[in-house]
Structures are given as C-alpha cells and as structure tokens.
Batch of 3 targets.
Target 1
Amino acid sequence: MSCLSKDVVFLKAGGSFITFKDKPVSVNYEALKALAEALKIAHKEVSIVLGNGGGSFAHHVVLKHSSENPVRLLVKCQQATRLLNRLIVDYLLFNDIPATSLQTSAIIGYGMNTLRAFTPPLLNLVGNGIVPVLYGECILTEKGSVEIFSTEKVFEIVSNILKPSRILLLTDVEGVYTCDPKKCSNPELIKRIDSSNLNSILESLKNDLSRDATGGMYSKIMSMSELSRKTGAKVIVTSGFNHENAVNALRGEIPEKSTVIEML
Ligand code: ADP
C-alpha cells in the first residue's frame, strides 16, 4: 500500500509546547493529549512526518555537559532526547495512532564533510501510512565534535527526500510576535512573513536574549524561510493546544491566530 499519493505534511511538536521548558525533564501531558487528538483525525487524511523538539529534556542536559568532552555530551544529549521521543511515541501508540520512532542520527549523518541521509526507512514508513517520529538530536561530526541538530534542521534534510505540501510548527504561543510574548509588554502577532518583511523581522529579533541551544525564534524564522523558499511550501506557526486548529492547519487551512511564512 502506498500513501505517497496523499499530501505530505511536516509537523513539529515544539519543545516549548510538549514540555515545560523551564522545568527539567517534564512533559506537558495537556499538549500531548491535544497532539494525539489532532493526529488521530489527520493521519488518515495526510501523510505526516512528525518531529519533536527537545524542550526541557535536551536543553538543560546540553547546558550541563557542554564543557565536558564531546563523547560525554553526545551520549547524555542522545539519552535525553531518546527518552522524550519514546514517551511521545508511546503516548501516540496508546491512542491508536500508528507512530514509530526514527532516530535522527541513525538516518542523518556526516560523510565526507557533507550531511547525508539514508532514506529508505523514512520513505517506507510514510509510504505505508505509518507516522515516523523524528526529533531534534545531538549529532556527531566526522571530526568528533557535537552538533546540536534542531527539528527544523531535520526537516531541511528530510525535504531533500520527501517534498512537503506544507509545514506546521506547533508551539506554546499563537505564532511569531514582534517580541517575546512572555516577556515584552505589547507583543503583536505577525500574520505573514514573506520576502517583503523577512529582513526587517529578523533584524528586530536579532537581539533576542531568550535564545536556547538551537537558536530561538530568530533561527527558526531563518531556517523556515529558507525551507519555504526551497520547497515552495507554506510554513504555519501556531499554538498546538487547540487540536481543531491543528487539524485544520494539517489540512491546509490557515488558523486565524497563526503566522504563515511563505517565500514565493
Ligand atoms: P519550540 O516550541 O519549537 O521548541 P522555541 O522554544 O524555540 O520553540 O520557541 C518558542 C518560544 O519562543 C515561545 O515559548 C516564546 O516564549 C519564545 N519567543 C521568543 N521570541 C518570540 C517571538 N518573537 N515570537 C514568538 N515567540 C517568541
């Protein structure tokens, strides 16, 4: 059975959504429930490649071990991200969603200084209606240094193999704002980011001090605008807590409260 005739959607369950980012190793089960409810409906209609961020599992481990030797940093980081990924996949399975874990660093790696992907496992899962769950992970370079690989970066590599019709980033806020909505006094939701306003938005977010190990909102917009340019796909950033919103976005409808990144 092949499901590649359906639209392919890359879906990120952000670390800020799926975990409590300021509380180490804590899953937000309300978020996980909303994610499962959305997937239960949408996985039958579109082919989903799910990726989860590392949130409070990865970031504090990276901070704790970043000054130690790279081997220790790598294994501790992978231990943390593996645990969160497994909790998510098991929760989805418990809710009858045919999901399975795909270890990012087992299908993406460096060879001759270039990032390479081993594609059959991913294609076979998606082609048979199974939801592969990749994740942001620490990856070893050929020289033995550790690279912190965000879910957005995973999507960039996977897009060379599988062309998404759209990309949906579920986070704990309604989209991209003029400033961090948890910290500034008058944040305004930016409804659309395209070639007419990309540079000015990046400029205003440049000095965002809340960046985490994968670079925060600035890096997210940089990488997603590039991915939209490369694939022609719309990127929708919205809150994951309203599962009907998420289902509609997976179907291609733009939620009222969201940011669309589209580089035509
Ligand atoms: P993810 O959920 O993908 O892990 P991040 O944690 O990197 O995403 O980014 C989401 C967080 O970024 C939100 O919780 C929010 O507080 C913070 N943030 C900082 N600046 C902004 C901004 N300009 N617009 C939206 N969110 C922002």
Target 2
Amino acid sequence: MEDVLPRRAAQLLGDARRVVVFTGAGISAESGVPTFRDDLTGLWARFDAQRLATAEAFHADPDLVWGWYEWRRSRVRRAEPHAGHRAIAAIEARVPGSTVITQNVDDLHERAGTRAAIHLHGSLFTPRCVAAAHPATFEDRHDGDATQPPEGRRIPPPRCASCMALVRPGVVWFGEALPEAALTAAVEAAAACDVFLTVGTSGVVYPAAEIPRIAARAGAAVIQINPEPTPLDQICAINLRGTAAQVLPALVAAAWKATDER
Ligand code: OAD
C-alpha cells in the first residue's frame, strides 16, 4: 500500500494543469524554524505565543513584542530553505497555472526561488506603520545582519520615517483580519485548481484552514504531506505520511519523470 500512494500522487501532480501548494509551519521545521505550536524556547518559554502575537500585547508593551519579532526575524535569517522549498519553486516554475499559498511569515519560499507566494498571515519582512498601515520607511537596525538579539530582549520598535508613528510587525495578529487581497486570491486559486498539495499544516486555524476545504469541495484532488494525521485527513484523496524535505523532492521528481516518459 505504501508505494501505491506516492505513485498515484505523482501521477495526479504530473497531469495537473492548475496546482495549488498550501504550506504551514511544518515546511519550515526542517530549516530549523520551530512550528507555531512548538513550545517557545529559552527566555521566551515563559510567554504564550498566542498572547504575544496580538495588537493588545504590542500596545501594552511594544518593546517586548518588537523584541520577540526581531528575535524570530534573526532566527529566520540564519535558517536556510531546504529541498522541499526548492521542490515547490520547481512546481511553480514548471506549471504555469500554479499558486503557492503560505500561512508562514518567514521568507524561505522566496529564498528557495518561489516568485509569488501568497502570504495569508503577512511576513516578518514587511513591517508597517501602525498609524496608516502604509509600509514603514525606517532605518532597519537589524537588516542583513545574522546576529541574534538575545532571547527575551526588549527592543524599542522604530518610528515611521514619514509620520513618526510606531512601526509594527507586518504579520496578522490573533483577532485581526487577513489581508483581503491575499485571502481572495487564495480562495480563487483553491476553487479553480485540480490538484491541491497541503504541506505541514495542522489545518485548525481559520479562515486559512478553510482553503484546503474549498479545494476539496470544488473537486480538486487534495494531497497532504505531514508526518502526523490532521483534521484535513478526511478531505484528502491521498495522505503522504512524511516530512516536507523528504516527500516533496521525491514526489516532484516522480511526477515529472512520469510525464516526461510519456
Ligand atoms: P502548526 O504548528 O499548527 O502545525 C504544524 C504542522 O506541521 C503539524 O501538523 C505538524 O505535524 C507538521 N509538521 C511538523 N514537522 C513537519 C515536517 N518536517 N514536514 C511536514 N510537516 C511537519 O502550524 P500551522 O498549521 O502553520 O497563525 O499553524 C497555522 C497558524 O496557526 C499559523 O500561521 C499561526 C498560528 O496561529 C497566525 O500567526 C495568524
């Protein structure tokens, strides 16, 4: 039974005209970026990520929240994309009708060559002004350097150069709406695809978790890559139990081999 599923998945992917790849924190795990539900490590362990990632926490203590995001940003800078990220970039390059949608706020898809990832939850690399939500222009004290601010360190957020309001992380906080254009594009792509690959997500945080379900309802073949079962199992045509860095490169190689041999 084991090798039948990957072969069937490779055939579906190889024949697909419109592919959506939907990723969660699990795709960054093998790059050393812990998943969202992993316990916070070190000095951050005493904090609850779900409480830090809120507008209330930022307004109550901007230095603490900005310090946490700067620590996360520097950790992502020190991470490298893996073969799974590169396999997704290969799908985007080879299948004109493909779309990459991520819940992650890191830039590992882009650094692996994905040209147009839809970020449903924003990005660590697009801080914005709290006043007008325009992209913040400010002198980025940490851009480029891989030095890691000490864990747990409070860092005063910069001020927007054009209006002097505080700059905040460009991510979606709990209780905030997702960027409308990103969500609309993701829903449209999910409703129109014929293969939907969901990789490394627990599929429990809405509205993002609705995207794979939209694809399934629209008749797409949903293929899941995750070492663990998730609530998405029951809507998937195929569940590949494995990690992103192991399964994705093998799946993509098999898919292109199957089509190139025809
Ligand atoms: P989670 O931490 O909820 O789930 C990570 C998933 O990745 C789990 O199902 C793991 O089994 C799986 N996983 C772990 N290692 C993996 C690997 N090497 N390869 C493949 N899969 C692996 O992360 P998300 O589902 O992304 O929202 O969480 C969704 C959202 O919840 C996040 O975007 C965040 C959080 O609230 C916001 O920040 C708004």
Target 3
Amino acid sequence: MTLSVLEPAAPAAETVSQRLSLIGRTRAGLSDALAEIGIPEKERRMRVGQLWNWIYHYGVRDFAEMTTIGKGLRGALSERFTLDLPEVTAEQISTDGTRKWLIRMASTGPRDRGAEIECVYIPEVDRGTLCVSSQVGCTLTCTFCHTGTQRLVRNLTTEEIVAQLMVARDRLGDFPNRSAPGGAFVPKDGGRFVSNIVFMGMGEPLYNFDGVRDAIDVISDNEGLSLGRRRITVSTSGVVPQIGPLGDQMGTMLAISLHAVRDDLRNELVPLNKKYPIAELMEACRTYPGLTNAKRITFEYVMLKGVNDSDAEARDLVRLLKGIPAKINLIPFNPWPGTKYECSDWDRIERFSEIVFRAGYASPVRTPRGRDILAACGQLKSETEKLSARARLMLDQDDAAAA
Ligand code: SAH
Ligand code: SF4
C-alpha cells in the first residue's frame, strides 16, 4: 500500500472562495452562470453546449483551453468562476490497484473547514467501478455500518456528487487527450477507466433524492461524461416511498441492502425496517419501474457470523425473492474498530452461497478489495471523523464512569 498525504494547494493571493467553480453544474446551473455575466438569453443554450463539452467531455481545467469560445467570454468567465475540482487531501493505492481518495469539499461558510468524503475506485478485469457518496455521514444507524456512527451529516450537493467522478477521471487520466498526473495509464482501446458507478459510499442516496437525481442526469449525459444509466447502481437501505420515483426519474439499476429475512432481525440491523418492513420493501421491488430479467435488482446481504448466516436463512432468502428478477450479492462483513459483529467463516459463506446458487441465483461473493487501505463499503469515513468518534467514545466512557 502507498499513502500520499498531499500538500494543501497554496491559496492564491486573491480570495479564491469568491469565485465559484462550475464543476458539477447541471445545464440549468451553467445557464445561470452565463446569465450572471450578462450573456443574453437567446445565446445561452449554445454557450451551455460549448461549456458542457469542454468541462465534461474533455475535462479541461482552464478556460483558456476552451478554443471554440472567444477570448472575451473566456475572460469574463474566469473573472467570475473557476474550473477547480475539490481538493484531494490524501490518496491511497492498494496493492490490488484499488484507489481511495479523501476529498475535501469547498467550505460553505466561515466556520466550515469543508466536509471530507471518501471515494473509491475499484479496477476489475471487465470494468472499473467508482463507489461514490451521496451524503456526508448518514442519518440512518445500521448497526454493522461504520458510516452510521458518524456525527456530522449533510446532503452532498449535485455538484459535489458529480465532482467525485471528475476527480477520479482527472486522477486516472481518463479524459480524451489527457494523461494522469504522475503518468498513470491511458486506455488504448477507447474504453474508460471508470465504466460503472455505484452509490455505495457514505449516505443514503434516497434521502438526497433531488441531489442524486440531478447528478445522475449530468453523469449520464452522452454529450459529456457519458456514463449510461444501466451502468449506474443506486443502493438503498429501503426508503420504500422513493423506490418507485427512483425508477421513474433516474432509471438506474437498483440495489437493496436487505441483510435479513425476518423483520425482528432486520429491525435490529437496519432500523429503518421498523418504518418500512420487509413485506412493503418487497412490494416496492416487485413494482420497480423497468424491472426485467435483463435489468435485475441486486440484493445485498452482509455475512455476519452467527447472526444472519444459517442454512435456514439462505432458504428463506430464496423464498422471499421468488418472482423478482434478482441477483444476490453476498458481502463479507468488513469489521471496524469497536464493532460487535464478526464476518462469517469462509466455509459458512460458501455453504450459504451454494444454497442460493442451487435455487438458480448467481450469487457472487463480493471479493474484499482494498482491505489494506480500508477501502471497503461501510468503512468510508474520514480520519478526522474517526478521531472525533474516538473522542466521543472517551466522553461516553467518562459519562458511564460518572453515573
Ligand atoms: N446507504 C445505502 C448505500 C451505502 S452503504 C445502503 O445502505 O444501501 C453500501 C453497502 O455497504 C450497503 O449494502 C451496506 O449495507 C454495506 N455495508 C455497510 N457497512 C458494511 C460493512 N461494515 N461491511 C460490509 N458491508 C457493509
Ligand atoms: Fe447509512 Fe447505508 Fe450505512 Fe445504513 S448501511 S448507516 S443506510 S450508509
């Protein structure tokens, strides 16, 4: 594993924060930017198209490179705006090629140091998957998930969600005619390094519905970042009322974090189940817009030793999913400091997956990737937050001692 903690970029003499970045904006957002600098309405659509192409297709970092746009307009844009990406404060590269970036978002006010989120790139033989976050932290409190213990929570903006893909493509040299800083690989076959996106980082994407929907519009636009909706998966812990709208408005692949086949256990593991129990969740899945055998729902099931990993539960899982075009994804639990759970033994996972497989489901066990850099799902949590969580634990202990 290699870790580089990057030097913070020296702030320019002028107050950079006064100029907003255009990175991550929707077409409407870019149009607003043009209105701000006095571009007449009838010209804006055409100008938005030009900006869109330079920003999202070519990934340019400087208005001066936008050669189809006249010098005057480029100057006016750069006086008011930037093409800055959020700052990457640390990059870790695993021995298996997985990369994890700690990204600091722009500050939203004088008392905000800028929220930090993590984003992970996982290269595989036939694809490169980027795992992105939809929120800083998560308001839900799934008992096996590290993100759920984070105190600070807010929705990421559309721009901040899109920026994660922009950062990844930038650092991987994954834009046309570009190579990565440090001379990383460039695709020779016209393929992209980031070919798939999963919303499986921090946060519950369906609690940030509008932000995620608009970000997916930007990401999937085929004149720009061009990542098709079939290659984007939104994972939810089961926000039932938003599952139909997700299919209608975003048209992406759906993943459900199921993890248990009985309400009593799921209430404990995924407390949101008390609000939307399994039967309601299954009904929302059955009626998911666009569901076909070619567009199946992925059911995620984290393997917790002695908790949810018996043969009987594997059989119940198969029964529960009957009639739903589904894939089952068994996830070895990733332990984190302080957790009460353990990962199921390997032969138990194999036995569980065998039962599921014999019932006709492909059940790939998600190979743990980037373990040496704590890059796996459920471990996406910034160093600063880890420290504050530790501090909080000490406070809790003090409270307990005082009681
Ligand atoms: N909030 C959404 C998406 C983010 S979590 C959701 O819950 O679906 C992405 C996936 O990682 C979920 O399936 C989640 O249950 C799983 N996960 C969380 N913590 C984990 C851990 N410690 N080990 C393995 N998987 C975990
Ligand atoms: Fe939130 Fe998903 Fe973690 Fe549950 S598993 S706490 S919903 S991020």
